[in-house]
Protein: DUF971 family protein
Amino acid sequence: MSSWPTEIRLSKDRRTLHVAFEDGASFALPAELLRVESPSAEVQGHHPSQKTIVAGKAAVEILRVEPVGNYAVRLGFDDMHETGIYAWDYLRELGEQAQEKMKAYEMALAEKGLSRERKR
Structure:
């Protein structure tokens, strides 16, 4: 593990997780990105070809941030998803690649005729 956090803070509106690392890097990670890129098998599958595109999460909120040992946090979302364990290196990767990952996510949604917005 090369990345070590010095701060993990959930915004008051529960839509952004702020993560700072000991080397000075810091990221504001949107709840939507964290949810749709959850490291859980439910989202990622057991092989890259099995990844699930999760639609309708533009307004998702983080309800819980729970430590998992000294290496990760488990996030609980308002859609009841709570099986992803986010290791420090993975949080850093999401921060560093947030724009690229969101762009790829939006393209995948468009290819499947899906939306970031929740169906009403």
Observations:
- The chain has one domain: 5-111.
